C-alpha cells in the first residue's frame, strides 16, 4: 500500500496536475522582457525545467544558472542540481526563476535579441524604388493623373461600392443602390466552370453565376477557391448554390472576377531536373 501511495503521489498525470503545477515569473540576465505565468510541474527535474525554458529564451540548458526568488525579489536559492525535482526547492505561485546566461557569446547578450537599433536595416534608394513596377507610388501617381482629387479613402469607398454592386457615382453624388440587373452585363461574360482570379489575387473556378437570395440585389459569381480563403462552402443564407469544402467558397460581384488561364499558384513553378522543393 505504501508503494502504491508513493506511486500515486508521484504521478504527473491530469488527475494531480492542478496540485503539482506552479505558476512562475521567468526573467533573464540578458533580456529586459519577462515571461509571465509560466506553468511548471513540481515533479519536473531541474534539467527538464532548463530544457523547457530554453524554448522561451534561447539559452541552452548547459549555459543556464537558475535562481529562485520570492515575490519581493529576494534570492531564496540556486537550482544547482539538475537531477533534483523542482518541488525540492519549494517554489510558490508568483515566485521568479531568474536565468543567468553564462555563455559570453550568447545571441541574447548586449541586447541583440531586443534592441532593433542594432540590426542593420535594408534601405532602398529612391532611384531603386522608382525603377520598380507595381508600387504604391506609381499607382498613386496614375490615379492622380486621372483624377487630381483622388485619395486613398475615395479609392477604398469605390472598391467597396463595386463589391456591393452599387453603380459608381459621379463626384459629389451618393451611390445608386443595386437593383435586380446590377452587373448583369459583367455576369453575362463569365462562364460557369471557367478558371478565374478574383480581385486581390485569389484564384479558383467559377461554380455559379446568378442572383443570390439574401445578398444585395443583382448578379453574383460563386467561386470555389484553390485555397481556404473563402467564407463559406458554396451556400449563402442557408441555400446551397454549389458544392465545396468549408472555407473554399465565396460569392463576389462579377466586376471583381477575371476569367482566363489562371492555374493554381503551385503549378506556376517550373522545376528543372535536379531542383528540390
TrEMBL record:
Region feature Disordered, mapped onto this chain: 161-186
CDD domains on file: Ubl_TBCB
Keywords: Chaperone, Cytoplasm
Record Gene3D superfamilies: CAP Gly-rich-like domain, Phosphatidylinositol 3-kinase Catalytic Subunit, Chain A, domain 1
Domain of life of the source: Eukaryota
One Pfam assignment: Ubiquitin_2
Domain CAP-Gly per the UniProt entry, residue ranges: 218-253
Single GO BP term: cytoplasmic microtubule organization
Location(s), subcellular: Cytoplasm
Any GO molecular function: alpha-tubulin binding
Chief location: cytoplasm
A GO cellular component entry from the record: nucleus
InterPro entries, sorted: CAP-Gly_dom_sf (IPR036859), CAP-Gly_domain (IPR000938), TBCB_Ubl (IPR045172), Ubiquitin-like_dom (IPR000626), Ubiquitin-like_domsf (IPR029071)
Residues in the signal sequence: none
Family label: Belongs to the TBCB family.
PANTHER family, A to Z: DYNACTIN 1-RELATED MICROTUBULE-BINDING, TUBULIN-FOLDING COFACTOR B
Name the UniProt record assigns to this protein: Tubulin folding cofactor B
Species of origin: Micractinium conductrix
Amino acid at each position: 500500500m505504501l508503494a502504491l501511495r508513493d506511486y500515486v503521489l508521484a504521478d504527473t498525470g491530469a488527475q494531480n496536475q492542478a496540485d503539482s503545477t506552479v505558476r512562475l515569473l521567468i526573467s533573464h540576465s540578458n533580456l529586459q522582457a519577462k515571461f509571465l505565468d509560466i506553468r511548471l510541474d513540481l515533479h519536473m527535474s531541474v534539467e527538464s525545467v532548463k530544457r523547457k525554458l530554453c524554448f522561451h529564451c534561447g539559452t541552452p540548458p548547459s549555459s543556464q544558472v537558475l535562481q529562485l526568488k520570492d515575490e519581493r525579489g529576494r534570492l531564496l536559492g540556486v537550482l544547482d542540481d539538475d537531477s533534483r525535482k523542482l518541488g525540492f526547492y519549494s517554489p510558490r505561485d508568483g515566485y521568479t526563476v531568474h536565468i543567468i546566461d553564462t555563455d559570453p557569446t550568447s545571441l541574447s547578450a548586449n541586447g541583440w535579441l531586443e534592441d532593433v537599433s542594432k540590426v542593420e536595416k535594408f534601405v532602398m534608394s529612391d532611384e531603386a524604388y522608382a525603377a520598380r513596377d507595381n508600387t504604391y507610388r506609381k499607382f498613386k501617381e496614375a490615379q492622380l493623373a486621372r483624377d487630381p482629387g483622388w485619395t486613398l479613402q475615395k479609392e477604398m469607398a469605390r472598391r467597396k461600392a463595386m463589391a456591393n454592386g452599387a453603380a459608381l457615382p459621379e463626384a459629389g453624388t451618393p451611390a445608386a443602390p443595386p437593383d435586380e440587373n446590377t452587373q448583369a452585363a459583367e455576369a453575362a461574360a463569365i462562364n460557369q466552370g471557367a478558371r478565374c482570379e478574383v480581385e486581390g489575387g485569389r484564384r479558383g473556378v467559377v461554380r455559379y453565376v446568378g442572383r443570390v437570395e439574401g445578398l444585395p440585389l443583382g448578379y453574383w459569381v460563386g467561386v470555389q477557391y484553390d485555397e481556404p480563403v473563402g467564407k463559406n462552402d458554396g451556400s449563402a443564407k442557408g441555400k446551397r448554390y454549389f458544392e465545396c469544402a468549408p472555407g473554399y467558397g465565396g460569392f463576389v460581384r462579377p466586376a471583381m472576377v477575371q476569367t482566363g488561364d489562371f492555374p493554381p499558384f503551385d503549378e506556376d513553378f517550373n522545376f528543372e531536373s535536379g531542383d528540390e522543393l
